[in-house]
User: What shape does this take?
Amino acid sequence: MPGLPGPYDGAVLVKWIRCTVVDRRGFERGQRKWAGLLGEPGFRGQGGGWSRTRPSVAHLVAFWESRAFYDSFMARSHDRLAAAQVGTFKDSRVRLFEYELDVKVGFRPVFTDADVLRIAHCQVRADRVEHFMLMQEKVWNPAMAGSPGMLRGLMGRAPGEEFLILSMWESAAERGKYRPERVERLGFRAQTEADVRAVTGDVADLEPAWTV
Assistant: This one.
């Protein structure tokens, strides 16, 4: 299931998985087993790929209609699907986020037209959350939406002032046009340093075979 036929406007749960792979061939073979997600109630799509900066790191993002559907899947089917990758990775980190807003318009959990996934994980100061979210909507989102090759994205939130910003891009070359000096200017305008306690980011080249 590559995604939904149109913009998804319901509540959505975003699952982000980052892991360090020790057996690349075994991991990729096991990754194909996740096709078993098809038909799971509430499942909306999954994709991922290899980090461009750390070749042994894999990123995966999955989308669910609600936390209830996700919890049901975890209780019933998860361990059976995950068994094929046991021992192929270490240092796995799993985080769950609730959808907050689109980056660009009409987010859909579709990976088939994207080559690159950009991930920004932000820890925001408690007294700056409202400003951070406003700046994401008024400064960052219009800038990213106007960047060549940017397809779609979203911002999700977890408890504790933790945010995940995902964006999908048409190609590595187009992603390169989102230049550091422009990001610096936007950050100054949005007062990002005042809002954010810590931020980690990465860029992954999407693997078509991992798309469910």
User: Anything to note?
Assistant: Residues 129-145 form the longest helix (17 residues).
